[in-house]
Design goal:
The chain is α+β, with helices and mostly antiparallel strands. The chain is built from one helix and six strands; from the N terminus they run αββββββ. It has one helix at residues 36-108; strands spanning 113-131, 134-144, 152-157, 162-166, 176-184, 188-207. β3 (152-157) and β4 (162-166) form a beta hairpin. The longest helix has 73 residues, at 36-108.
Amino acid sequence: MKCENCGFENKDTAKFCTKCGASFVEQPPAPPEGPKETNNTTKYVIVALVIVIIMLVAGLSYFAGSMNSNDVSSDAAVQNDTASQDAGSDDSQESQSTSTQTTSSSSSKSKSWEIIGTYSGSGSGSQTVEVPSGQIMVKLSAYPIKNYATNHLYVSGSNGQSGGVDWGSHSDVETRSDSFSYTSSSSETFTIDYYETVSWEVEFYRYQ
């Protein structure tokens, strides 16, 4: 078999040229090409579909953005409304709390012993003082010059209430104290009598 490509003589049973490798087997005919117009139509259809898909995606994106914007606006309005209600509630609670505290403060203000007069001195002598009405407490203390067995501090009132300290002939020279209380609906006069003292002090308290 003579090769049509290079002219080399090959065996009759050869399927390829021994020299150039050309095939002696007949190739099936290539399928005829389709018309160009069909290929162009397919391209146009594909382009149109792509454009439609892009438009659909853009429309959906715009719609979703609008919905989110409306939701955000609604949420903001609800939050503002809730904040206003909370602020009003807080103001109301604060007002009620202030009112309650004021009431509690006025009602819980308890009475206590408050000093209404203090008198002090030294040596020997006496003096009188006026004490107003009410629940009264008297505190007194004194320190003697030395033990004469007559050193003393006495406080006595026109209502018969009295108290005092003194020292005997064998008492230690030291500070002594005393106190008493009473209740009177009118003012009372008290006499403070003291003798041979280094210092003395009388305090009057009222429960108010």
